[in-house]
Write a structure and sequence with these properties.
It is a single chain. By secondary structure, the protein is of the alpha/beta class. The protein folds into two domains: 296 residues, Alkaline Phosphatase, subunit A (3-Layer(aba) Sandwich); 112 residues, Nuclear Transport Factor 2, Chain: A, CATH 3.10.450. 33% of the residues lie in helices and 19% in strands. The chain has 14 helices and 16 strands. It starts with a strand and ends in a 5-residue tail after the last strand. The relative contact order is 0.13. The model has no long low-confidence stretch (mean pLDDT 89). The structure holds zinc ion (ZN). Zinc ion (ZN) binds next to loops.
């Protein structure tokens, strides 16, 4: 499994056109409505690896506690118990560095990443980190015959917007071709996936609504080995079918465990967060809803956003959204003496859209505030009488506010001097 951070299917088609063409020429499956279940990386990768619901905390200590508590649920441990050789690595020792403390797999690239981290992590030995990671994967595969399970993640080219994912295009093909030549494709699934699309930065606050969808629909490509196609033609047929169905991180989790159960003749376990999910090898209904697939309203893409007309209700939704953000900001605890968060002032509206389902309406309100020129996108549920807030934070640039106590609050705060303080 090779993940590339912040790579929606649309962004993959735009910035990795040669890779996409290459995958198509070898009949890789391309899941067109693969949906994320949480906001950013951690909230999507953990459910993928463990089948648990997203952990919403951004506090590193709390994240690590959750990792520690659920270490036995990690996919690589299931494969390891079944006799697979396992490996894990990422290019930018930041996202999952805490995994290493748990000695997650038989092989992992921590030492190497630590060295990169100390120096220039974009280049090392005249090579960029992805090339090192690709070589590591190839060495791992050449060293062990089947069965093996590897989970790898690349983030240096694509994490920020605009970033330069296009620079990875030809190297990715080169790697995939080297991988193909090892003949591992005959008996090994290869999964090229992402955790989410662009979550912040300029395009997320564009007047157009497209990036709302883009953020929620990461890429998922899959190479199905010939051996599998021959022995399990029905399962393969269903996988092809499901390319045009709503699928999620939990489906991918269940699919990996299904592959494990088929190859070891053991019972398949289901993702705890969504036990009704059976994976991509069973036919998924065209009537499947986000609720069926355990995708919360906030990340659901099964509706068409409509431009909101300038009515009293639309203006009201904006007022509610702005005051909610101001309220959050004013309640933030700072841990640097004599600092506080500035009162956020409404600057301008970027866009307001809505959709309806049943007797409810949802407003998606995207607006800028100052100081700091932050942008927010609030999702408000309206039941005909009251608005309920589901605020998501989307800034033009990653905020790094040093006076704030809790990491998750940073985005809502612009630190200023508290003049009342002596
Ligand atoms: Zn990410």
């Amino acid at each position: 499994m090779l993940g590339i951070d912040t790579m929606s299917r649309a962004r993959a088609y735009n910035s990795l056109p040669k890779t996409v063409k290459y995958l198509q020429s070898y009949d890789w499956l391309d899941f067109r409505a693969y949906s994320k279940v949480g906001f950013r990386t951690f909230e999507n990768i953990l459910p993928l690896l463990t089948g648990l619901p997203p952990i919403t905390t951004r506090v590193l200590e709390e994240q690590f506690k959750a990792l520690e508590k659920n270490a036995h649920r990690f996919m690589w441990n299931r494969f390891k118990e079944a006799g697979y050789m396992t490996a894990f690595g990422e290019t930018h020792m930041e996202t999952f560095f805490r995994f290493y403390e748990l000695h997650p797999t038989d092989h992992y690239v921590r030492r190497f990443e630590e060295e990169l981290w100390r120096g220039n992590y974009v280049c090392s030995g005249s090579m960029f980190p992805e090339r090192h990671l690709f070589d590591y994967i190839l060495q791992f595969i050449r060293a062990y015959k089947d069965p093996y399970f590897g989970f790898f993640f690349s983030n240096s080219f694509s994490h920020d917007y605009p970033g330069s994912p296009a620079l990875l295009d030809k190297h990715l093909i080169e790697f995939l071709e080297q991988l193909r030549q090892t003949k591992s494709w005959n008996s090994t699934f290869v999964v090229l996936f992402s955790d989410h699309g662009v979550t912040y930065g300029k395009p997320r606050n564009d007047k157009q609504k497209e990036f709302y969808y883009e953020e929620r629909l990461p890429m998922l490509f899959m190479q199905v080995p010939d051996d599998f196609k021959e022995v399990f033609p029905d399962e393969y047929f269903n996988m092809q079918w499901n390319q045009n169905r709503l699928t999620t991180v939990y489906d991918l989790h269940a699919t990996m465990l299904k592959i494990l159960s088929l190859s070891t003749n053991t019972r398949q376990s289901k993702p705890d967060a969504c036990p009704k999910v059976t994976g991509l090898t069973e036919k998924i209904s065209s009537k499947r809803t986000c609720k069926d697939a355990c995708v919360s309203e906030i990340y659901c893409t099964c509706q068409c956003l409509i431009n909101a007309p300038n009515t009293w209700l639309t203006r009201k939704s904006l007022n509610v959204a702005v005051s909610k953000v101001q309220q959050i900001s004013q309640a933030i605890k700072t841990d640097v003496k004599c600092t506080k968060c500035a009162k956020l002032k409404y600057e301008k509206t970027n866009r307001i859209h809505f959709y309806t389902r049943g007797n409810k309406t949802w407003y998606i309100v995207n607006f800028d505030v100052s100081p700091g020129y932050k942008s927010f996108e609030a999702i408000l549920e309206y039941d005909g009488q009251r608005f309920t807030h589901l605020v998501t934070e989307i800034t033009k640039a990653m905020a790094d506010q040093s006076c704030v106590y809790a990491y998750q609050d940073k985005v809502y705060c612009e630190c200023i001097k508290d003049n009342k303080c002596t």
